[in-house]
Amino acid sequence: MQTIRVVSLFLAVVSSFLSLHAATFIVPSDESLIAAADDIVVGTAVTSLVERNDRGAIVTRYTLRIEEVLKGDRAAGSYLVLTERGGHLGDSAKYIPGTPQYVAGQRYLVFTDASTDDITTLVMALGQFRIVDDGQRRLAVRSEVFGFDQNLEPHRELVRDASAFATHIRGVLSRSVGPSTAYFVDEPADRFEAASHWTPQVDAGRGIYLLSDGGSFYRWSPPTATMVRNGSQPGVDGPASVTKAFQQWNSTDSNIDYDDGGVDNSATGGLDVDDGKNAVLFNTALQPPFSSAAAIGGITDSTGPSTFEGESFWKIKEVDVVVNNITISSQNCLNSVMTHEVGHTLGFKHAAESPNHADAIMNWQVQCGWNGVLKQYDKDAAAVVYGNGCSLPGITTHPQTKTIFAGATTSLSVTATGTAVTYQWYIGTAPDTSTPTGTNSSTLSNLSPSSTTSYWVRVTNACGSVNSNTATVTVQACNPPSITAQPQPKSTTYGTAANMSVEVTGTGPLTYQWYVGNTGDTSDPIAGARSATPSIALVATARVWVRINGQCSPPADSQAVTITVTCPDVVVGTPTATGFGANWTLNVTASTTSTGPLKYEWFRGSNPGSSVAPKVGEGQSLPVVVTGVTQFWAKVTNACGVSKASDLVVVAPCQLPVITTQPADRTIVKNTSTQLAVVATGDGVTIQWYQGIAPDKTILLGSGASIDVAPLTSTSYWASLTNTCGEISTRTVLVSVSEPTCNAPAITTQPTPAQEVKGGSTVTLTVVAEGTATLHYQWYEGLSGDATSPVGTDSATFTTPVLGLSASYWVKITNGCGEASSATAQITVPKGRRRSTRH
Asked: Strand 686-691 to strand 715-723: parallel, antiparallel, or no bridges (unpaired)?
């Protein structure tokens, strides 16, 4: 589906003015634009993306790389995305006149509007300036600007000196300068106008009146529509304006048949939504960027393209006219506006874009005094596009200027539209008809002028004629090719290209083709060998030569030379075999200096290279099944046919280890150890133990049928059993670790509580206690609990020093779980006896 909206912008004017201006701006001053812009940047367009927004309307999102920031918070080197209404999406399109487009690689000075969710160019085309170079300086050029200045005088768009304009913008923003015209260049902007994707490149035919997209024009087929109405316009008679517009277009010499379908309040789609209804909507608030428009009319839904009498058209399916909620100055003005906008729904473009437009309802400037009455231009447009009116021929492709060498031939052609056209070619510059040439054909063939000559063609039918552009055939002198250095013989190995060369003089461009064979034999051209210095890869020794064609005859043929191709040897490694039981895989490696694939073939037998050995398969790796000891060997052949046989590889079936007793899970007390063990049968079994879950081999613990482990926390273990046949794994076992039980010391036998000894004697005291882990003993002199005088060693037994006086002793017993204190052991020494020295 093709969607396009053709827009005319109307500014409300007071009743003292006699005209409205279609697609017309009241152009603000540069100072007003500078103040209104959210950002002012210089950047280069990078990419564009056409998509539908959340309302289903086609928009184009242009990405610009910012080079300079004149206003706003953006940074040089960052990217700015501008969203503009319209674009081409698949088989759908939308076009709004006055909406700027950004061409990749083009530099722009841009004023932005960030008042909506999507950032747009400020005031449509008024906020975009292309940066162009006229060979002397860089200029800022604004396009598609029609209307009045702030004094309501006709606006004349001038070019700006880009550097001076940027300086002025900075000065305005810094308030260091006021309004100025010093940066203007007295050149009209249309001198630098860029070609538009939307501008049809035609000279005559229906296309001169119609809007286009991609070379196809918009046209009803047939031009029949019933348009409903919704709403009313304050101060004027809206339905009367619709009736007037329909009467004017229906009365032309055409098939146009528009009908008033009456009021339909459900017709609300308007410009943004394809609701399947042709409608005129009155007093409807238009959203940006159309908010300053009085009315917009155009094609809301179309499909195609299709052809009609040799021309390509988009088929119109739905049209709409929307009138803004503003006051229109008079009924005459609304009638002219409505007739103009209905013309857009018929696909007609503005008359200012076509020849012979003069006075026209479809012109840029619509007179209120015309009261919606069509002018001759509008009637002609209706007759040509939709009626039986005569249509001039149109030239869509002009003859193109060419350059040939003396003695060569060329042709010129023209592509034209229209019915029953004839062609007359002329020598000279259009419109000089003094020297006719050629026949009634769109192509002038077999041209071989002796000197530079100009040509043009006149295309004629019953309606008139149109002249083509002048095309010049420039004739240059030509020298046939001549070989100055012949090719030389080369030697190379198979798969390696020989670098050949030939040196030639002559008028170029020259073309080359190398051949296999003797000079003159063109039966075997070498693919891709089409230069003076090709790389030629042959599969066998052969002779080659080259033919050189220039811009004039005869061609030059070189001598034939030999490229000698040798085939390199093949180096084969020792084959290997991996597997177990009956299933094995053979493998061999080989190398050669030639390019191309190697062919691997496997044979069974004890004599490598034997021509009678049975072949068992192909491939660098080959799976085989054996039932007993078997010998194999491989033959490897390179791309040029050299073969080598490998050594023998012997395959003997064997048995993997068999586990008869798996290791068991264990539970231990922390700081103790346990033993893990596996029992297996098989020859040459190697057992390795790992910490972790099989097959994790990160932590190797040791080798053997058993291993002692003492983990501090619960840990998993497993063992790998291997022999020459392969590897198997035990189950993963878990050694769980528990904390030990802790008991405080408890005295089961106290030291002797009371003793009497003679002076000069010693006494041995003993205590018996129990408790978890190691017990520690500390003896003290004094009553139990008095720890001021420690004596003795860390032992359950304590021997006193030689006693001369009575003394008391006790012991404290400790471990990690607590302590216990003994009772007091009282030792009495009777008085009057010899006193000992206390230690």
From this structure: antiparallel
Quote the CA–CA distance of 763 and 706 in Å, as a whole number: 54
**How confident is the model at residue 570, as a pLDDT?**
93
Phi, psi for residue 57 in degrees, rounded to 5: -85, 145
Radius of gyration of the chain (CA): 52
Q: For the packed helices 331-345 and 238-250, what is the interaxial angle rounded to 10 degrees?
A: 50
- Residue 356: the pLDDT is 44
Give the DSSP letter string of 723-788: ETTEEEEPPPEEEEEEPPP----EEEEPPPSEEE--TTB--EEE-EEE-SS--EEEEEESSTT--S
> Which residues on neighbouring strands pair with residue 270, listed in sequence order?
none
Averaged over 508-535, what is the pLDDT?
A: 95
State the CB neighbour count (10 A cutoff) for residue 182: 10
**Is the pLDDT score of 199 beyond 50?**
no
Please state, in angstroms and rounded to a whole number, the distance separating the CA atoms of residues 443 and 412. 6
Q: Are strands 40-52 and 58-71 parallel, antiparallel or unpaired?
A: antiparallel
CA pair distance 390, 465, nearest whole angstrom: 12
What lies within 8 Å, CB to CB, of 612 at 6+ separation is none
Give the phi and the psi of residue 242 in degrees, each rounded to 5.
-65, -45
Question: Which is it for the CA torsion 423, 429, 434, 436, positive or negative?
Answer: negative
Structure token pair of residue 606: 């004890």
> How far, in Å, CA of 520 to CA of 543, rounded?
12
Fill in the amino acid letter for 231: G
Model confidence pLDDT, tens digit, residues 800-816: 999 999 999 999 999 88
- Token output for 7: 């827009």
pLDDT of residue 215: 66
Give the C-alpha separation, 145 to 235, whole Å: 30
Tokens of 662: 């798996």
3-class state of residue 478 by DSSP: coil
Q: Give the type of residue at 62.
A: Y
Strands 503-505 and 535-536: unpaired
What residue type is assigned to position 765 of the chain?
Answer: L
Locate tokens 């004890």: which residue? 606
CB 687 within 8 A of CB 720: yes
The percent of residues in the chain predicted with pLDDT above 90, rounded, is 54
Chain center to CA of 792: 88
Backbone angles phi, psi at 165, to 5 degrees: -65, -40
812: nearest Cα among 800, 794, 839: 794
3-state secondary structure at position 5 = coil
Per-residue model confidence as pLDDT tens digits over 41-57? 999 999 999 898 887 77
Do residues 633 and 603 lie in contact, with contact meaning Cβ atoms separated by under 8 Å?
Answer: yes
Q: How far apart are the first and last CA of the chain?
A: 118
State the Cα–Cα distance between residues 194 and 143, nearest whole angstrom.
8
Query: pLDDT at residue 688 above 90?
Result: yes
Tell me the residue length of the chain: 839
How far is CA 127 from its chain centroid? 30
Q: Quote the CA–CA distance of 270 and 293 in Å, as a whole number.
A: 15
More confident residue, 239 or 387: 239
Q: Are 338 and 246 in contact (CB under 8 A)?
A: no
- Report which secondary-structure segment, H or E, holds 315: strand 311-323
Report strand pairing: 279-281 vs 471-476. Answer: unpaired
Q: Cis omega (within 30 of 0) on the bond before 305?
A: yes
User: CB burial class (10 A; 0-12, 13-18, 19+) of residue 519?
Assistant: middle
**Spatial CB neighbours of 332, under 8 Å, sequence gap ≥ 6:** 368, 369, 370, 371, 372
Token readout for 106 is 């083009």
Give dist(CA 607, CA 613) in Å, integer.
8
Whether residue 833 has pLDDT greater than 80: no
What is the 3-state composition of the chain as percent helix, strand, coil, each rounded to the nearest 5?
Answer: 10, 40, 50
CA angle 112, 113, 116 (to 5 degrees): 145
324 and 293 Cβ atoms separated by less than 8 Å: yes
